[in-house]
Amino acid sequence: MTNLKQALSLGCTGALAIFIAFYFALPPWVLFIAWVSYHLFGTNLKTAFTILIQQLFGILIAMLIQYTGACLSAFIGAFGFPLAVFIAMIGVFYISKLKRLNTIPAYFLGLTTWFSSGFEIAVQSLFILILSLVLGYCIAALDTFLHNKLAAKK
Question: pTM for the whole thing?
Answer without folding.
Answer: 0.91
